[in-house]
Design goal:
- The chain is of the alpha/beta class.
- Helices cover 42% and strands 15% of the residues.
- It contains ten helices and nine strands.
- The protein has helices spanning 16-32, 45-52, 56-68, 87-90, 107-123, 140-150, 163-167, 171-174, 199-212, 228-240; strands spanning 72-74, 80-82, 91-96, 126-131, 156-160, 180-183, 192-195, 220-223, 250-253.
- α2 (45-52) crosses α3.
- The longest helix has 17 residues, at 16-32.
């Protein structure tokens, strides 16, 4: 395992919290820039104490903060090493304007959260969830997202629906420091990317599931965002499965 050398004394401000944050910021910056590679052993607590001219308690607080954020791993008497999968490379934000159980939250949101959890296990990455994000109202969840972004705790931002719905015209939307992807919706943001759902495939899977369950009388209830070709596709699906439905079984609600 590699080891980084102490680089000599560094003068730090006097307040313990400021000195702790100075240590955290410097080690985090070196990890993010790739100057400290995964698995590299950090200097000992005594070496860090002497370099920054702080107490061992302040050093421990700084190491605890880095470990809590996922940048380092403590090994007891064997010291502390840079994490193999630090958050700026392996942790992603899943952002939504809606909150679970409240207006605007749907099974689509719940399904995405479940899919993210499964993907995290499969790809050995992590997701952090930010619900109730509103840049215009500067909600607590938006401020938490902003802080985590500035502290390099995230590798990318994934907005459920259009990025404008949650991030508005904020700095995270107009000049995102991380890759920004929206799931469905539309966007005019020049640095945002969209993943558009294949709704026809959704309809096919839904009809297939209901037919498998023996359901023969199917109605379609859609919101205003469903295009006319979507309704027509559903009608054709029913016909292909030997089902028929009167026109009034196809309803669009506001």
């Amino acid at each position: 395992m590699d080891r980084i050398e102490n680089e000599g004394p560094t003068v730090t401000p006097s307040r313990p919290s400021v000195r702790r944050d100075r240590i955290v910021d410097e080690f985090r910056r070196r990890i993010v820039r790739g100057q400290l590679k995964p698995g590299v052993r950090l200097p000992t607590r005594v070496e860090i104490r002497d370099r920054y001219r702080v107490s061992l308690a302040t050093v421990q607080e700084a190491l605890n903060r880095l470990a809590q954020d996922g940048f380092v791993v403590a090994h007891g008497k064997n010291g502390t090493t840079v994490a193999e999968r630090p958050p700026h490379l392996h942790q992603y934000a899943l952002v939504s304007h809606a909150r679970p159980g409240q207006r605007g939250w749907s099974l689509f949101h719940t399904g995405l959260c479940h899919a993210a959890a499964a993907l995290g296990q499969e790809r050995n990455c992590r997701f952090r969830y930010y619900h109730g994000v509103s840049a215009s109202e500067r909600t607590p969840e938006y401020l938490r997202l902003l802080e985590d972004t500035r502290a390099s705790r995230l590798a990318g931002l994934i907005a459920i629906n259009s990025p404008e719905d949650t991030l508005g015209r904020s700095e995270l939307a107009l000049n995102p420091p991380l890759p920004l992807v929206g799931i469905s919706g539309n966007t005019a943001l020049p640095k945002a990317h969209l993943v558009v759902a294949d709704w026809h495939d959704f309809y096919e899977r839904a009809v297939e599931r209901l037919v498998t369950l023996g359901r023969r009388r199917l109605a379609v209830i859609a919101d205003e965002s469903m295009q006319a070709d979507g309704l027509e596709h559903c009608r054709r699906l029913l016909e292909c499965n030997g089902l028929s439905a009167p026109p009034y079984w196809f309803q669009v609600v506001g």
